[in-house]
Amino acid sequence: MDKARFFPQIKFFGEKLSDEISKKEVLVVGIGGIGSWIVEMLARMGVKKIGVLDYDRVEIHNLTRQNYREKDVGSLKVDTSEERVREINSKVMVEKFNEIKLEYFKKFDLFFDCVDNIDTKYLLNEISVYIGKPYIFGTISGNRGFFGYIDPKYFCFYDIYHGKRDCVSCRDEGIDVSSVFFISSLMVKLFIRSIFDPSPRVYHFNLSEFSIEEVKVKRKDCRICMRRDFEYSRDGSV
């Protein structure tokens, strides 16, 4: 790690943790309101490699909450994200994907679920269970949302939502841009914490009330992470 460049970070985290961050290879799925800011934070922190997975193009209404500019409208989000990372930190490797394939997830230490489609969230959860890798999820609508670090050895996303389809989503109620920055930052905080404390945890927040609380998750004969009875994938593959 370049000590001159990352001096403030090293001063706060220490050399050992900063060095661990610089070795991480992370995949971000969904480069929208949450994911686009997470990509930027990871680049500024100096992770080794960032994978960006999305098939969408930048639209004009994305500019109110996503890390894109007017000149990016019409461009693929993965292309614009790669360009942004190169401008911030040219030493960070970037790999782009436009579809979900099991082999992509196996390449990385951990992935972020930043999608706002409940079917895709359940699919990503099954991939996590199948390959045995932890991930960080986030979902937001208006001023409230959930985020957490999931390790399938302890519980999975299904244990939180139990197959329900009414997951909090910005598609339902719209979004407050300050809430996007809030949840993105805390998801990155969970990533940092997972390096030295990989215990799973889930939180709910409501910024209208300035509240945040940990959600206690109980796993009871989970059909996904215990019985591996996958619904959204074929034996964990896609």
UniProtKB/TrEMBL annotation:
InterPro entries reported for this sequence: ThiF/MoeB/HesA, ThiF_NAD_FAD-bd, Ubiquitin-activating_enz
GO MF term set: tRNA threonylcarbamoyladenosine dehydratase; ubiquitin-like modifier activating enzyme activity
One record GO biological process: cyclic threonylcarbamoyladenosine biosynthetic process
Domain named THIF-type NAD/FAD binding fold: residues: 9-222
Descriptive protein name: THIF-type NAD/FAD binding fold domain-containing protein
Source organism: Candidatus Nanoclepta minutus
